[in-house]
Write a structure and sequence with these properties.
With about 150 residues, the protein is an alpha/beta fold. The chain contains five helices and five strands. The protein has a five-stranded parallel sheet with strand order 3-2-1-4-5, sandwiched between helices. Strand 1 (about 45-50), helix 3 (about 55-65) and strand 2 form a beta-alpha-beta unit. The two termini are about 30 Å apart. Bound molecules: S-adenosylmethionine (SAM). S-adenosylmethionine binds near residues 99 and 118.
Amino acid sequence: MDVKRQIQEYWDWRSSSYINGVTGLVDEERDIWKRYLSSCLGTQRLKVLDVGTGRGFLALLLAELGHEVTAVDISQSMLDEAEKEAGSRGLDVKFMECDAENLPFHDETFDIVVNKYLLWTLPEPDKALSEWNRVLSSENGKVIAIDGN
Ligand SMILES: C[S@@+](CC[C@H](N)C(=O)[O-])C[C@H]1O[C@@H](n2cnc3c(N)ncnc32)[C@H](O)[C@@H]1O
């Protein structure tokens, strides 16, 4: 089986147990995340792409902050969970299944590309970075990559 298919199957399997704070965050923690994201992004409404959104951790916070958010993931099961969560919060986020290393968007579509705990999972992170760069606006486009070691 090809490696991407294996990765996809793994995250489909993890989707029911992968919480990582999406629903568990208390209001105080949500506010800390929102303050941090606002300090990076400012107050203007931006077109944001959350890559490897999982259950929508960053996508939902960014939608709450008023940004226009597209959230993608290789696992449809993760996206189903994220979509449920967005619905229950009344948030408008566009979800789409696709590969972070091969994005189906035109050049310069987004102001910001965000991701959290994704880079370590990718077989070809350099390919992903060049894709994120391609879909970013050439004027003030930014990547915000949040990861551990
Ligand atoms: C560790 S989880 C992080 C989820 C979320 N960003 C968070 O912080 O809660 C990694 C996520 O990346 C997704 N992923 C892994 N490889 C991917 C790829 N090539 N393209 C898009 N998403 C991918 C997985 O399906 C999973 O949802």
